Amino acid sequence: MSDTHAVGGPLEQARPGARVRRSAAPARMAAFVFLVVAASYLSAAAAGFGFVSDDFMILQRLARTPGVQGALAFFSQPYYDYYRPLGFLSFAVDWSFWRDWPAAYHLTSLALHVANMWLVWALATRLAGPAAGLVAAAIFGLHPANHEAVYWMSARFDLLAACLALGSLLLLQGRSLRCAACALLYLAALLSKESAVAFPVVVFAYAWLIRRESPAVLLRVLAWMGGAALVYTFLRQASGLPPAGGASRLPKLLAFAVLLGLQLALAHPGSAGVRRWMWDRRRPLAAAAASALGALGILAAAWPPAAALRGAFASLGFAAIHLVSPVSPDRWLTPLPWWIGLAGGAAAVGVIGAASRMASGAAPAFLAWFLAAALLPVSSMTEGPRYLYLASVPVAIFAARILITVLRRDSVPVRVLGAVLIAALGGQIAARGRDWVWASGMTAEAAAAIAQAAGPGCRGARIVLATAPVRPRGVHANLNHEALESLAGCAPEGLSTLVRTAYDTPTIDASLREGVLTLRTRRYAGGFLTSTDLRHFVVAIDKAGPTRLTNPLGPFEAVPDGSSLTIRQALSGDDARHFIWFVFSGGELRVLTPGR
């Protein structure tokens, strides 16, 4: 393709198939970066980091499958609403060698993260040079948003899918396209986690913008990727799941189709004039986009039925804050107000318009397509930053490119500053590791407390957690049946929760007298969730006004008073007298004795 303009500006003169020299960055600096990343994450494993939350559900499934020998079972059975057989196969390999030894699983996840660092280095080197490649690998390896994907065993699906997807993309770097191998790795990424579904947009953008392939070759690439997606759809349906993931995912699939259609239209030689027109008017277009965001913000604020619009802005803000912030915001900006996403989106458009000269070229345009494709499948997910793992790749490469452009030289002060920043980010990752270690220890102690109060094996016990942790200290630590059974041999008849306490570890005064449970916290920062059926926790307890409902236990009321919150649960029925009550307060679970 001979066009001189891409969506994001003039194409870089990259010769298709050209070999790029190995990184000229000092080997000692590269070794330092990789060692800092490994040491930062290994500190948690050395401190006795165990399992948390959904880890126990995965371990229970592994225990029912005869290791790698039962690998075919993973391809025929879904995991709830998910189909991730290759992810479970990687867990099965660990199980075959180490059973339930936590350190082995965490080391495997770290190894995948380091492999992904190398892939990011290889991609960034080809896009922006060896110095930018090393900086991008450092930013990605120590990105604050990536701690959850690496530390949490259950998030290995994200690591594996990213590794296979990046490998698929890098197969286009050689002298031949290797379409079949590229499509095979894309299929493997899908079989690791379905969020890789939009990656053909990335592969197409690379072949179009960076390799500058002909329209015939672009269609061939797209055909191979589409074939891989069809194979995945067939396997998913054969396992008993809906082929497209259900009606709730149709809007995202439609947006995916729109992205591909837009790429095909812009890649056509006849659209060169349109691309040139857009580039020449990039700043007015950015201003118009910012104005449109402002209008949507006014609509979201003034029109009560616009809940979906506020939710979209909240998701946008979640992604923007976590991807751009140099520190992990889990503990200081949660829950995220929806207007933060609006402001962040408007600011991003303004920055893009102002920095359009610096961001010109095929590489930034490719990275923009990469970011859109990585965010689309997870655009409604705000439960944890692991969803942004793949999206952090284009952000790291773009940031490295900007930094190298601004600094323009490899001086001693620049090296010293880079080393200090890397060490600071590594210290932050190690600090988050201590939160995960605390969470695994708290889970083990909570399971022991429940088993002690409920008696041998917890047989016949009906456990109710008046308050239960969900994401204390910004990490996953919810209690479930599988955790009790695995850690304490406790299999109660029932395990229910009244209020989930997310984001922090509040101190709660609890009493149970005359059929009324009373919970008081003096400083309510938000994040409490309750339920009408004690199963689906979708009712947020508001800080601005009372929350009233009826659940299976009886009438429920939460009343804020300034910065404090009082919750009262009336217990109707004789069954409530046979419950064993617990309350999560101050970072630990303790039994609640009736009459106190």
Secondary structure layout:
Blueprint: E1 5-6, E2 9-10, H1 27-46, H2 55-63, H3 71-76, H4 85-98, H5 102-128, H6 130-141, H7 147-151, H8 156-170, H9 179-192, H10 199-210, H11 215-238, H12 250-267, H13 272-280, H14 282-302, H15 307-324, H16 338-354, H17 362-375, H18 392-407, H19 412-454, E3 462-469, H20 481-488, E4 494-501, E5 509-513, E6 516-521, E7 528-530, E8 539-540, E9 547-551, E10 554-561, E11 564-570, E12 580-585, E13 588-592
Parallel strand pairs: 3-4, 3-12
Antiparallel strand pairs: 1-2, 4-7, 5-6, 6-11, 7-8, 9-10, 10-11, 12-13
Structural class: alpha+beta
Uncertain segments are: 1-25
Rg from C-alpha positions? 26 Å
What's the number of domains?
Answer: 2
Tell me the overall shape. Answer: globular
N/C terminus separation = 77 Å
The number of helical runs is 20
Oligomer: single chain
Mean pLDDT, as a whole number?
Answer: 83
Largest sheet: number of strands, sense, barrel closure: 6 strands, mixed
- Tell me the β content: 5-15%
Q: If strands are numbered along the chain, what order do they take across the biggest sheet? A: 8-7-4-3-12-13
Number of strands: 13
The helix fraction, in percent, is 40-55%
Question: Which key phrases capture this entry?
Answer:
2 domains; 11% strand; disordered N terminus; 5-stranded antiparallel sheet; 6-stranded mixed sheet; alpha+beta; 596 residues; 13 strands
